[in-house]
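WARN no homologs supplied; continuing
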Amino acid sequence: MSGPGARHRRISTELKKQARTIPRPPHGRGDVTTTRTGASKASGAITHREKVLFPEEGITKGELAAYYGAIAPVMLPHIHARPVTMERYPAGIDKKGFWQKDVSKGFPEWLERIEVPKKDGTVHHPLVTDARSLLWMTNQNTITLHVWTSRAPNVYHPDICVFDLDPSDDEPTMLRAAALALRGLLGELGLTSWLKTSGSKGFHILVPLDGKATMGEVARFAYEVGAILVTRDPEHLTQEFSKADRRGRMLVDTGRNGYSATFAAPYAVRAKRGAPVSAPCTWDELERGTVGPRTFTLRTMAARVAEVGDLWKDMWKSEVGSLTSDVLDRLRLLT
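OK structure emitted
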C-alpha cells in the first residue's frame, strides 16, 4: 500500500526507532562533564613524519600534519569541543584502517575528553580544543576527524543539523539539483543553510541551530524534512539506507543527527586517493557547477583559503535556526 497514510506510518516507525537509541542524559539538563586523562605522555609533537599515508600521491604523515597545523585557525571554530571519532590509518590508506571513539588510557594528561553513555557502559570521546589537540590526533595517524552535531558539555542539544546527500552514481547534475531543492525546502521553513563538499561522493547541507532543541527533536525534524524532499522527487531520491533498496537513487541521509552519529568535520581530509578535503563552498559555486564533491584537496586548500578565507566564519553570526512552533507548523503543512 502506498500514499500519504503509508508514508506517515513509515516516518512514525523510523522516528520511534531513533528515539529509542538516545540514552537519557546523566544530569538534569543534559550536560556532560569533560575530563582529562591520567597518562602523562607526549605533547602535540609529530613522530615518523616520513611515513607515507597516501601512496599514490606520496603524501606523508608530516605533510598531513603540516596541513592540519596550517588549517587549524579556520577549522577550530567549527569543531571546538565536539566529541570526535578518529579514522586512523597506521599503515596508510591502502591498508586497513579503523575508527576509534574511546580514549581510556595511554593518552596525554592535557587532552580533554567527554564521557558519554552507550549501551552497557560509557565512551570517552576526545575533544579538539586547540591546535595541539588537533595535531595530537593527527600524530595517531588520524586522517579524518568525524564529529558530533553538538558540543561539550551540552552534548544533548545540537547546534547544527546535517543533511548528507549520497548519490549511488556519479551524476553531478542530479546531485546539484537535489542540493538546491533541499536548500529551497529549508528556505520554505525559514531556515538558512550552508554547504560543503563531502570529500567523497556528495555534499553536506547544514543548518546552524540555537542549541535549544534536543537531539531527538533535531533528528526527527531532519528525517521529516528528508521525507518531504523524497516525496517531491521519488524517482531520483530515497531514504532507504540499503544500497540494494535504493535502486540507483540518491540517499537523503539524515542519520547524522542521531545520538553518537558523526559527520566529516569541516576542512577534514578524507582517506581516499587524491586526499580530498570536505570543504565549505558557496551556493553560487554549486549553481555554476564549479565545485564537486572532491574538488578541493590537501594540496590545493592553502590556495583556496588564501583566496576565499573561511566561508563559514559568519555561520553563527548570521540568522541561526530555531525549531520553533512556527517552523514546525510550516513543516506539518508541507507533509
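The chain is about 30% helix and 20% strand.
OK
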